[in-house]
Amino acid sequence: AHIGAEARPGDGVVFDEAVRPSRRPRLALHLYPDGFEHTKDLGIVTPYDETDGLWDRVAPLRDRTDVLDGHDRVWVVARSRRGTAADELTLRKAGYTLVEARRLRSDTILLYEKGSS
């Protein structure tokens, strides 16, 4: 709900992939798609409905930095800091700065902006 209320068209979103699939924050994207309508999933390689399994195929940002092109803001949905540390490092190296952190019951939502100081 927070991302849905605050996201702007063109925002990117990255999800924690370090926990078992049934606990991944990425599931919110499929369960509540309206909350992510203004965002682009930057980790997705192959959506689950195009695979022979149950889960999306994803890749870390460090392997696909080109997906950041055109995105001045990136939301990070973390279950644990360990789970998004590499993606956050990639964002910082690409010139993004953490501008918001919101702690929820199980997850943390972070907003990074490019060129913010």
Q: What Rg, in angstroms, do the CA atoms define?
A: 13 Å
Overall helicity: 10-25%
Proportion of β residues? Answer: 25-35%
How are strands sequenced across the largest beta sheet?
A: 2-1-5-7-6
Which ranges are low-confidence, i.e. pLDDT below 50, for 5 or more consecutive residues? Answer: none
Total DSSP E strands: 7
Structural class: alpha/beta
First and last CA, distance: 27 Å
Average pLDDT value? Answer: 92
Number of helices: 3
Shape from CA axes?
A: globular
SSE topology string = HEHEEEEHEE
- Largest sheet, described in full? 5 strands, mixed
Core attributes:
117 residues, alpha/beta, five-stranded mixed β-sheet, two-stranded antiparallel ribbon, 7 strands, 20% helix, globular
Topology, element by element:
Elements lengths: L1 H5 L4 E5 L11 H5 L7 E3 L2 E3 L10 E2 L14 E6 L2 H13 L2 E8 L4 E7 L3
Parallel strand pairs: 1-2, 1-5
Antiparallel strand pairs: 3-4, 5-7, 6-7
Description:
- This protein has 117 residues and is α/β, with parallel strands linked by helices.
- It is globular.
- The strands form two sheets. The protein has a five-stranded mixed beta sheet, covered by helices on one side. A two-stranded antiparallel ribbon has the order 3-4.
- The termini are far apart.
- The protein contains three helices and seven strands, in the order αβαββββαββ.
- It has helices at residues 2-6, 27-31, 81-93, and strands at residues 11-15, 39-41, 44-46, 57-58, 73-78, 96-103, 108-114.
